[in-house]
Amino acid sequence: MGEKWVLMKTAQTPTNIAVIKYWGKRDETLILPVNDSISVTLDPAHLCTTTTVAVSPAFQQDRMWLNGKEMSLSGGRYQNCLREIRKRAREVEDKERGIKIEKKDWEKLHLHIASYNNFPTAAGLASSAAGFACLVFALAKLMNVSEDESQLSAIARQGSGSACRSLFGGFVKWIMGKEDDGSDSLAVQLVDEKHWEDLFIIIAVVSSRQKETSSTSGMRESVETSSLLQHRAKEVVPKRTIQMEEAIQYRDFASFAKLACADSNQFHAVCLDTLPPIFYMNDTSHRQVLVYICWIISYVEKWNRSEGTPQVAYTFDAGPNAVLIARDRKAAAQLIQRLLFYFPPKSDTDLDSYLLGDKTILKDAGLEGLEDVKALSPPPENGSAQKYPGDVSYFICTRPGKGPILLSNDKLALLDPETGLPK
Amino acid sequence: MGEKWVLMKTAQTPTNIAVIKYWGKRDETLILPVNDSISVTLDPAHLCTTTTVAVSPAFQQDRMWLNGKEMSLSGGRYQNCLREIRKRAREVEDKERGIKIEKKDWEKLHLHIASYNNFPTAAGLASSAAGFACLVFALAKLMNVSEDESQLSAIARQGSGSACRSLFGGFVKWIMGKEDDGSDSLAVQLVDEKHWEDLFIIIAVVSSRQKETSSTSGMRESVETSSLLQHRAKEVVPKRTIQMEEAIQYRDFASFAKLACADSNQFHAVCLDTLPPIFYMNDTSHRQVLVYICWIISYVEKWNRSEGTPQVAYTFDAGPNAVLIARDRKAAAQLIQRLLFYFPPKSDTDLDSYLLGDKTILKDAGLEGLEDVKALSPPPENGSAQKYPGDVSYFICTRPGKGPILLSNDKLALLDPETGLPK
């Protein structure tokens, strides 16, 4: 010890979208939920957090940079994660470089953390879920922690509840647990990302800068004032979770879509049953957002009815971005045709920057450029051909994706291997 | 019998607004609800139905005219009301005119019915409630029925559920009842219209022609698909009803407002929890209505918080008209200032046709004409001064009102006393 070496690990972690929603805590400090939840992990190629963690005897204090900007680690949620992971740190030896860290040394050593999202942090795409999952996963690797992903998820959970579900790929269940200490409130993988490869996930990111009702305060108010929340948690979700697990197991899209849409709506119903009701935005500059949400819901319901069996499921978190899950590539191509018909880009936006992620779907939809978008016919199932250019900022097309991975290529590290500072 | 005489009665019946909502039937034919509900009766001077019923041996069949236009009586709901009231008909004698109808004659005699609403029928202002209550009340008088208002309410209920609450003035409770035959599902008066005279009720009727999700089908879908509805009916409403009765008894406006707003929001939450969710409008021409509802709710919540104690309660039925209940004349004057600031009339509308009902409130608000409306300052409690001219079609200012009355002035009859046809 005493030398100037820097030891680093870099990890990449996906974000996730709940299809059975988490809303309401039974313990705010430990972040213990009032019900189980189920999510699908999104392909990290399109939405992920990359985090480099470094340790060095030269570091004077714990420091963190998010998207290149230093930020405070003093918050309780960061402190809880750091404390819990340090407790589990073990001996680390790099014989080649002659570095050895004893278990007891970890208490004294400081950390540098750099994190980067490949998607807009403010856009309400579960950046804190991917972020805390990546922090905990990377630190576990750096510190040679022996706990498995489920056990790590119980630590990430203390940073941000939904983060625990980002420790796995595919479909993931956050088991609420029963213990007061939260030790059994953790995530398990239901199926991996290969199990249901047909699915396509299209996210419509709306133009409005999201003005979040903080989830933490929103949940607290719902727990305190909504008489429907406890019923949902105790009676509805337990049954729905079992049904959703079955739908996922058997790739039963009709059941999956019905349950996901119903649960998204019920979560919003609980928000409306909160005093005062939570609308996700309450100033007039966000007027169009709520209308847009209702439009999407009504439209998907109408389209699904016209097809006889659901083609698309919708789900909304505590923000206006619509997450649409299509049953297969064909349905996704039809969906993107419909979305681009009703929500075309503004005239100064090209298609390449309007549909991010998996762009192969554009070819299936016969959309090679803006000319093709303009030539789209109104969908037969809807009477109205009114368009809303500019209402959507951009779309992201993605798939169910894999869980956290360690990046061995040092070039992808966000911290300088010599100084331990952001590159 | 055999002569050409016509015997008539004319009645006037108020409409009512639920402050604990009725949503969901346990029996669709008898119209038996899944929970109790409580309403306030609105002053019939501003909103009422007038109905003239006539009987004559010359009438060939039962006929009805609504607002001057003949309509069919073949619907089950009309038939149920007519059958039930005929069962209870008794001997009627008009010695002066030498008319005598035996109890058994009523089965053979036909009726003419003319009904008129002093407010727009399509505007979603509970016209069917006032209408069926008035029909049953007028027929009961014509047929010398001995049943009291509560017993009559159980008949009106079979025409339209909420009609049973229009048989009384003041605050009224519809007791859901337990019997399979519906005999104990009826309305009782909690307090009369003199009990809480401070209240002012301002209804904002929106421009959009209401496109109703039929309440009947909406309720049915909620009962079948909403997992929150049964919980609301069995667990929430029973407690809330007791609290609301107390709030009314003690004129406790803070509790009254909290309960009324919470129950309106919960009713809408159940609609959102229905599959597919009920939004009250689902085409794009009604875009602004939902936004407007959220605006009103957010605004009232904000204002109430800024005042420290609630000044105004809001409640919405299955339509976009906001019903705002102000604690007293002062709060009503402040409310009307705010409403007219944010929702001014279009330039071609004069104030007299923009605020209907009790116009004395305009003087309290210092609003003698459109010039005064234009000169209004933005309310201090709200940051935004954005106005929405044209969003509201008109306002109605009213009060808690009295129950049904018989009109003895023959000039007010809607049927010609000689022919029994509409005047």
From TrEMBL, chains A, B:
Q: Name one GO biological process term.
A: isopentenyl diphosphate biosynthetic process, mevalonate pathway
UniProt-annotated location(s): Peroxisome
Q: Which reaction does it catalyse?
A: (R)-5-diphosphomevalonate + ATP = isopentenyl diphosphate + ADP + phosphate + CO2
Pfam families the UniProt entry points to: MDD_C, MVD-like_N
- Enzyme class at the top of the EC tree: lyase
**E.C. no:** 4.1.1.33
Q: Name one GO molecular function term.
A: diphosphomevalonate decarboxylase activity
The record's InterPro entries line, in alphabetical order, gives: GHMP_kinase_C_sf (IPR036554), Mev_decarb (IPR005935), Mev_diP_decarb (IPR029765), MVD-like_N (IPR053859), Mvd1_C (IPR041431), Ribosomal_Su5_D2-typ_SF (IPR020568), Ribsml_uS5_D2-typ_fold_subgr (IPR014721)
* Source superkingdom: Eukaryota
Q: Which UniProt keywords apply?
A: ATP-binding, Lipid biosynthesis, Lipid metabolism, Lyase, Nucleotide-binding, Peroxisome, Steroid biosynthesis, Steroid metabolism, Sterol biosynthesis, Sterol metabolism
Question: What region holds the Diphosphomevalonate decarboxylase-like N-terminal domain?
Answer: 14-187
Cellular component, GO annotation: cytosol; peroxisome
Mvd1 C-terminal domain location? 201-406
* Principal location listed in the UniProt entry: other
Summarizing the function annotation, the protein's role is: Performs the first committed step in the biosynthesis of isoprene-containing compounds such as sterols and terpenoids.
Q: Which family does it belong to?
A: Belongs to the diphosphomevalonate decarboxylase family.
Database matches in PANTHER family: DIPHOSPHOMEVALONATE DECARBOXYLASE
Query: Under which name does UniProt file this protein?
Result: Diphosphomevalonate decarboxylase
Task: Look up and give the organism this protein is from.
Answer: Gossypium arboreum
